[in-house]
Amino acid sequence: MHDVIIIGAGPAGLSAGLWCDELGLDTLVLEHDEQVGGQLHSIHGPIGNYPGLTANNGKEFLEKFAERVHDSDFDLWTGVEIESVDLKAKKIVLRSGEQLQTISIIVATGVRRRQLGIPGETEFAGRGIIESPTRDRGKFAGYDVCVIGGGDAAAENALLLAEVCPTVTVVHRSKSLRARREFAERLKTEHSVTVFPESVVNRIMGNDEVEAVEIRRKDALKPFQMAVRGVAIRIGVEPNTEIIQGQVDMDELGYVVVTSQQETSVANVFAIGDVSNPLAPTISAASGSGATAAKVIAARLQGRER
Ligand SMILES: Cc1cc2nc3c(=O)[nH]c(=O)nc-3n(C[C@H](O)[C@H](O)[C@H](O)COP(=O)(O)OP(=O)(O)OC[C@H]3O[C@@H](n4cnc5c(N)ncnc54)[C@H](O)[C@@H]3O)c2cc1C
User: What is the pTM of this model?
Assistant: First the structure.
C-alpha cells in the first residue's frame, strides 16, 4: 500500500514526487514513456520564464530538474502501461498484471498534440509528417515544407525549419497568429517563411511519401495544391485523460476539474499540471500544483488538515 501514486513524470509529476518525498510520503511515480520529462522534450528554444532556472531548451532544463530527482528516494517506474485505474477504490492495474493499491492518486498525465483528422495525416506518419523539427532536421533539409497552426508550437517549428528548408508555409485559420509576439515578429523577418492566414489544409497527398498539401484560402475561390515534402501539424493540444474517463468531472474540453487544493470530484484523487490547467499551461504552474497536491495529501495523512 503506497501513500500516493503519481501518474505521469512530466514537470508536474516530478515536482509532486519531490515534494511527496520531502514530506515523508511513500511515493510511486508511474511514467508511460521510457524517459521522464513529458513536453520538456518538445521545447527546442530557450526557457527563461521559470523562476531561478534558465536553460537553452527543454532537454537542458530537464537535466537540471533531474539532478534533484536522482537525489530523491521516491520510486519511479518508466515504460509502464496502465491497464486500468479505479479512482474510487484507489487501485491501479498494470498491463503486466501487477496490481497497485494506494491511499491517494495524483493524475499528472499532461496533454498531447491534437490531431487534424484530415486525409493523409495518419497515412503519412513517418513518411513526411514532421514529428520533431530538430530530430527530423536532416531529413527535411533542402525541401519545401508546410506548418499547420498559428500558436507558439507552430511558430517555433516554422522558425527551426526555416534554418534548413528553402520555403516554409505556415497555414492557420485565424486572422492573426496566436503565437507569442517574439515568435510572430521573428517569422515576419524570415524571408523563407510565408504565412497564409484564414486558411486550412484539406488533405495531405502523395504516394510513398508526402508530396503536396491541398490548401483552401478564405480569399480564394478554389482550393489549390502546393508541393511540399514535409508537414508539421501543430494545432494545439488535448488532455490525456483516457485512463480516468467517466470517473471524475471534466470540463467541455476534457480537462479535469479541480478545487484550489488540486482535488478532483473523487476524494483523495488529485490532478495537477496541464491535464487540469487549460488556461495557463506552464512549467511553473505544473510544479506549483504538484507542491499543492503533495502538501494537502501529507496534511491529510498526518491529520493536520485545517
Ligand atoms: C513547444 C513548447 C514550448 C513550451 N515552452 C514553455 C516555456 O517556455 N515555459 C513554460 O513554462 N512552459 C512551456 N511549455 C509548456 C510546458 O512544457 C508544460 O506546461 C509542462 O510540460 C506541463 O507539465 P505536465 O507534467 O503537466 O505535463 P507533460 O509535460 O505533458 O507530462 C505528462 C507526462 O505524463 C505521461 N503520461 C501521459 N499519460 C500517461 C499514462 N496513461 N500513464 C503514465 N504516464 C502518462 C506523459 O508520457 C508525460 O511524460 C511549452 C510546451 C511546448 C510543447
Answer: 0.85
